[in-house]
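During the second year of the project, the team shifted from modelling isolated chains to modelling whole assemblies. The rationale, set out in the original proposal, was that interfaces cannot be judged from single-chain predictions alone. As a representative example for this report, we include one of the complexes processed in the last quarter. Its constituent sequences, exactly as entered into the pipeline, are reproduced here:
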Amino acid sequence: MERQEIIKAVNSIFSSRFELEESELTEDKNLVEDLQLDSLDMVDMIVGLQQKFGIMLRDNKDIRNVRTLGDVYNLFEKLIEEHPEIVDKIK
Amino acid sequence: MFRNINSRLPSEETLGSFLMEKRRAVVTGIGVVSPLGNSASVFYEALKAGRSGIRAMTEWHGEFGKNIAGAPVSLAPAEVKAISRKVRRTMGNAALFSGVAAAQAVAQSGLDAAEFSAGRIGCVIGSTVGSASSMTEACVAEFEGRRDDLSACHFFRLMSHSSSFNVADMFGINGIQLSTNSACASGLQAVGTALELIQLGKADAVIAGGSDEATPLVASSFQLLYALAEEESAEPETLSRPFDARRQGLVCSEGAGILVVEELEHARRRGAEILFEVAGYATNCSGWHVSHSDAKQIANCMRTALDDAGIAPSEVDYVSAHATGTRVGDQAEAEAIREVLGGGVPVSSLKGHIGHTLGASGALELAAVAGMMRENLVLPTRNLEEVDDCAGILLPRTAEERELRVCLKNSIAFGGVNATLVCRRFG
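Output from the structure prediction step:
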């Protein structure tokens, strides 16, 4: 799966759940400081990404340590590399 | 020892002075979300025109296997988006209705936004449940094994005080926040509680009212008790018939009524327009049955509210009844009104127009009372054609011009709860 496709899938969660414009969603954006996500939003980000990618993330330590949107893209690039079957589960 | 304790109590003189100087509360803003439109003026004009907000809920056909009448609210996307995402995310529909109505009420009152965070503004809003639709959604997710799909915000949508804390957050209110969750008396108890907080000096203004949602879960709760009007052959808009001989039960409705209740001198200093005075309030319970209305205790509640206002029964010009269209409930309320006020005071129920908005009803119907007092006009009960067991009280069939200085609003709820608010024209 190309990185651009991962970015598109991740961004769809940020657009729908947090009502952010596509133009705001760049790799360098800090989730808290730039995108104004708070603790409830961070949980909802995990819930949204779980639904989108069809995998459980709640107990994944890496997802709880992401700081920027680029970190989220990188995490999913790594997860898909390790578990290619995820691609078939993306909604 | 006793002398020392007594020395700390207020003297009779001080206590008398305190009681003499009981602070007065007035309404300076009213917001409405209703099946007949989303502002106090649109709502009142629709009632005056005799319109009905009730229709066949075809979207519920799957749940009931037949057409059930209901009175849903419609919110424009702009009304919803006007509330910031960070507040809106924790709102179920009931809290959303409260938020939209509160924004109207606060705008009309002209309260200074800087005051909200000074600790003297409160927020008291009640509903039967925080959000019936969110409750259903959570149960379905649980039963289908999809608990992990629920948003982090979901629990905040269905919590019993969801309307109250969400509206407080909308405005940055950091004073007293309460929820008067007593089913169909919730909204009126909230306004009464606002009066008491102001009288006690604990708040200078309170955003107060009620809200609720119409859902299949709620409608079926009344259906189970044979308290839902569900005759399929009848036109939906004729099904809600308070006080009428052919009444069969209530029609489930939804909405919110939110008022800005403000201490009189506080309102005067700001030069705010005063819509009416909240002159007295009482609430009690029957203490014997959760679903039967109790005429004796409804009468006691009305008398106590009048005493609280220092107003004699003979001074009452109109009663906005709770009357939902159930056989027993309407009859008991009619009996109580007859006992306290006799048969010469006009009485009407607005539930013929909009159905029963549940926890919203008390506060929402106050918006109509305010309009009636402003215009000295008694609006009739829609669909009232023939009276049998509710005879002996004055039930106008058409709108009547009449001097309205003092109006009572009743709310009667499951759990045996009664509430009466005394509204007095100001000035």
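The first strand of chain B starts at residue 25 and ends at 33. Residues 279-424 of chain B form a domain with the Peroxisomal Thiolase; Chain A, domain 1 fold (CATH 3.40.47.10).
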